[in-house]
Write a structure and sequence with these properties.
305 residues, Alpha-Beta Plaits, 9-stranded antiparallel sheet
Length: 305
């Protein structure tokens, strides 16, 4: 586990408890130090502050009269990932334009509050799925943050016009089939598309010895690595949700992803797949743009009345 250094007098800011509420003091330093290290931050003296001199950057290890211990925020080795797919009631689009704009602004405020120091990605599924319009991927080291975010989100005007036809809870962890370190967060690239699906393996897969499973997966991993333009993310759901995994692929060319999946169908590991549907082709964009795609009106960021 590593630790994140926050400026003295600040704390890591959690998701706010009401949409649009005034934020507290956010952490202004994100220096990461190894676990077990002591991080301190240099503060300007009164004279330096008066003259406008900038404080020294980064953690220091030399004591002086101008340094104070920084608050430390732990960066978890595992992170919860919540994939929430929302479907809009068509009746919402018949509301007055200003009412729709206000609904979107409330929804956006809840998302932006959460995203201050947590990962939140938005994707439009308008035109790619008939049963969903929007996907939110919220990530946090604590499940309480995920819960609070969705409580706040449900208070927004837009949420009252939506249903959640699909929802997947998972967690990042190190793969038993790879020497690569676990990613603290998933889906962090700037690629245009994210293709997501739940995955279950057959039970006889788990009865194979670990070394045999590693042998089978070696081919699977090698095929994936032959498509370097596609980022593959695996999150684990054992005991947390109905599926065993949630797999997400980030790419700029969906056709290349099609080729990857078709090639994987012939791999030995594919024979042990029990379920890998439904599949969601999601278009990455800002939360505001994803909300504006719901009614075609660029009003999610309009000034509040």
């Amino acid at each position: 586990m590593s630790r994140k250094v926050c400026a003295i007098g600040t704390v890591p800011r959690p998701a706010l408890i009401t949409p649009g509420a005034s934020p507290g003091t956010a952490a202004i330093c994100s220096t990461v130090v190894p676990n077990g290290s002591i991080a301190i931050t240099t503060l300007p003296s009164a004279g330096a502050a008066a003259s406008g001199a900038a404080p020294a950057a980064g953690p220091k290890s030399v004591a002086s009269s101008t340094i104070s211990a920084a608050r430390i925020a732990f960066v978890a080795d595992r992170t919860f990932a919540k994939f929430t797919f929302l479907k809009l009631d068509p009746a919402w689009q018949r509301r007055e334009p200003e009412a729709r704009a206000e609904d979107k602004r409330e929804f956006l405020a809840a998302c932006e509050d959460f995203a201050v120091d947590r990962s939140l990605r938005a994707y439009s599924t308008v035109g790619t799925r008939g049963d969903t319009d929007l996907m939110l991927l919220a990530q946090s080291p604590t499940l309480a943050d995920i819960h609070t975010f969705h409580v706040v989100l449900a208070q927004s005007g837009l949420a009252k016009w939506t249903t959640i036809p699909h929802s997947y809870l998972a967690m990042t962890k190190r793969s038993p089939y790879s020497d690569a370190a676990a990613r603290p967060e998933i889906c962090q690239s700037e690629r245009k598309y994210c293709i997501v699906y739940p995955l279950d393996k057959r039970r006889d897969w788990y009865r194979l010895p670990l070394e045999e499973r590693r042998r089978v997966m070696a081919e699977h991993i090698e095929i994936g690595r032959s498509y370097p333009e596609i980022t593959i993310n695996t999150a684990y759901s054992f005991g947390l949700d109905d599926q065993e995994f949630v797999v997400s692929f980030e790419c700029d060319d969906p056709g290349r992803f099609l080729d990857l999946v078709q090639e994987l169908r012939g791999s030995e590991s594919s024979a042990f797949t029990l379920r890998d549907t439904p599949i969601f082709t999601c278009i990455a964009m800002s939360t505001g743009r994803a909300l504006d795609a719901l009614d075609g009106a660029a009003t999610s960021r309009a000034a509040l009345a």
